[in-house]
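MODEL INPUT / OUTPUT PAIR
PAIR INDEX: 1
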Amino acid sequence: MTKYIQLFIAIIFSTSNLHAQSVIDLGQTDQIYSTILKENRTINIYFPEDYNSTDTIKYPTIYILDGGIKEDFIHLVGIVRYYTQPWIAQFPKSIVVGIENTNRKRDFTFAVDNLEFLEKEGFKKESFPQYGKSGAYIAFLESELQPYMENKYHANKDRTVIGESLAGLLASEILVEKPDLFSKYIIIAPSLWWGEQKLLHESKNPLNANIKNPLKVYLGIPNKDEDIKMYEESIKFSQILKQINKINLCFDYLPLELHATIVHQAVYNAFKKLYPKK
C-alpha cells in the first residue's frame, strides 16, 4: 500500500474570502510487511525530481534509520534535495529511504546477558522493556528492504546509511558485522556504551575479516563537555577504524552541537566530506 507524502500550502487572499491551496509532493509512503520482524513497517521514500519509473537510470540510495515523518526524514531530504540541485551538484541525485520506528530500543540494540550496566549509564532497567533484536532488524534490511527497493524502484547498490545515537550504535554494528550492506556510513554520536562497550572491544577482528570492498565512514561527535564518556568511546572507535585499510574515515568533532542538535549539521558536513567537490 502506497500513499503520497504531501505538504499543503494555503495562500490566503486578503481581498476576498477565497482560499487557494497547492500541494507539494515530497515523496511517498509504502507499507511493507516484514516476515522477519513479523510486523508492518512504514517506509518513507523520496525520489529525485526527474525520477521516472519507465527510465532505466538507477540511483544511489540513502537509508535513514530514524526515518519517520516526525523523525529525521523531512529535514534530511531537504539536505539531499539541496545538494543535488544542478547548480550545486555536490553528489549524485539519490533516492532517500526513511524507515519509521516501531520499537527503537528493541531494534537498534544487540543481545546482552543482562542489563546491569544500564544504571551506570544513567538509565533504569525499566526503560528498556524490550531490547537485543538488532540481528533481526539487520536481516530485515538485508533480506527484505534492500531487495524491495532494488526490485520495485530504480535503486542501485550504492547505499548510504545514516544513524544517530542508538541508530548510530546499529549503524556501527552493521559496519562491524556486515560492512558490505552499505558503501557509505554516516554515524553520529553512537551509543557505544551499550553492553559495556562490547562492540567497541570486539570490533577490530570482525572488521578486518568481513570487509570486502572499500568503504567511506563519517563519524560525527558533539561537544565533549556534554558527555565526555561518549566522546572518549567515539575516539577509541575512530582509532580502530583508522587501522582498517579498506575504510576511508572522516572524523568530525562538532563542539558547537549537542546530542540533541547534531544530526542536521553532521549530515550536512558528511555529504560535503564523503562527496568532495571535484
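PAIR INDEX: 2
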Amino acid sequence: MEDVPLTSGPSRPLPAAVLWDMDGTLIDTEPYWIGAETELVEAHGGVWTHEDGAAMVGNPMSAAVVALQARGVDLTADEIADFLNGRVRAGVAAEVPWQPGALEILRALHGAGVPMALVTSSFRVLAEPFAETVGLFDVVVSADDVSRPKPDPEPYLLAARLLGVPVARCVAVEDSHSGVASAVASGARVIGVEVMQELADRPGLSRVGSLADLTLDDLARIADGDVLDLRPAG
C-alpha cells in the first residue's frame, strides 16, 4: 500500500493509516458513561462522583466493573456491562455526540484515500453501530477482539495488521493516559487530544487541544516524525 501524497502544502506523504480511539476522542460519550455509572451506583445506595467517572476514562470495562462493585453495585460483570452499554448505546443512537472537528478530519482523510481503523476499548455492541453510521472506517477493533486491552499495545498492533500496513507508518489518535500508552507501545506515531485528561509530555507524543485544530498537513508532518504541540497557548 502506497502513501497518499498531500494535494497541497509541504510535499510529505500522509500516514499509511490513521487509527482512531472512539470514546472521548471522536465522540463525547464520557458524559453518557459517567451518567450510567452514577445511576447504577446510586440505585445500589452508593455515591459516584464526576471525578470517579473521569478516573475510568480510557480503561477497559473490567476496570469499571471492579470499581462499581467496590461501591456496592451487587450485580455480575455481565449485568454491569449490559447496563452501561445499553445506556451509552441509547445516547449515541439518539444523536452522535461528535467532538469538534472530528467528522471533518475523518472526511478529509477519507477523501485523500487514507485507510482508517476504529480502535476502541468499548465492546462491539457500541463500536459497530457507530462505525456503520459513519461509514468511513476500513477496520474496527473493539474490546471483543483482543485478549489484552489498552494500555497493552495489542489493539493497535491488530488494527495495523488488519489494514495490512506497518504500525510504524500509522498515526494513532487518543485522548486518555491508557490509550496513549497503548498507542505509543505499539510503535505508531501518536497524537494525544486533551479533552478530559491532561496528557503529560513524553517522547514522540504530539498534543492537540481539539481535533478542530488538526489538519492533513499536521498529520503528514507527524507521520514523518515531527512532534507537534498544537494546544492553545496559555
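PAIR 2 NOTE: Strands lie at 17-20, 116-119, 139-141, 170-174, 189-193, 205-208.
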